[in-house]
UniProtKB/TrEMBL annotation:
Pfam families: DUF34_NIF3 (PF01784). It comes from the Bacteria. Keywords: Metal-binding. It comes from Fictibacillus barbaricus. This is GTP cyclohydrolase 1 type 2 homolog. Belongs to the GTP cyclohydrolase I type 2/NIF3 family.
Amino acid sequence: MKTSEFEQLTTTLFGEWLSIFNDEGEYGFTHRVEKEINRIAYATNLTPETVEKAVKANADLLLTHHDAWDFLYGMREVCVSELERHGISHYFNHSPLDFVKFGTCTALFEQIQIDEITSYSTCTENKDYPGIGIFERGITFSELKGRLEKALNEPVGAWQNHGRPVKKVAILTGAGNNSALIKYAMEQGCDAFITGEKTLYSVQYANFAGVNLYVGSHTFTEIFGVENFAKKVQEAYPETELVLIKEKHLEAADKKCLIG
């Protein structure tokens, strides 16, 4: 697969979501080399560490969910310099990957073994909406926490705000810490809301609204969406090798508590 073929494939995979976010810097190459792509390394974040690991993996393309944003002052320049030095392309896909059907929210539903996804995460009129899924028989508060911790391989913050079984679940991965998202989940009859960041106000509102709140890390609630993206590329070009870049659990409050 050539770089140009990969680029064309992204338009097929993401469709209208690319045009919706076309003017917002939400996807694209930070460094592009037209070459044969035999090995793709993938991670949630573009950092000097993930670039270094892509180099060690002999990757031709580094695929991430996040760019090294402008407010990470100077980080992108360091990353691009190393990508240039080693002839590696980097492509990131942020908002489109959050809302495409195989994306970050769907992928986390798959990891917790939801029985049915009834609505996919979406964005309309600059408002984000979580995906919603159902456990047919319902599970306990602790069981859902355990499933998340097993999938993410890290501690998960969990606040039990009612005593019902958990049947209906809303997910918005990453920075889903807006209380409006929890309000939407409550209005849809959800028993739980899962995301990757919290604030005082999201914890307060979940308690007030009677919705169980689960908070993993931004990085590891979203890695499975990047993996789904990479696997879609491999499905189109089966000769392509995939390499998962293992990132540090920087967001874990107590790294000694990591599972495994």
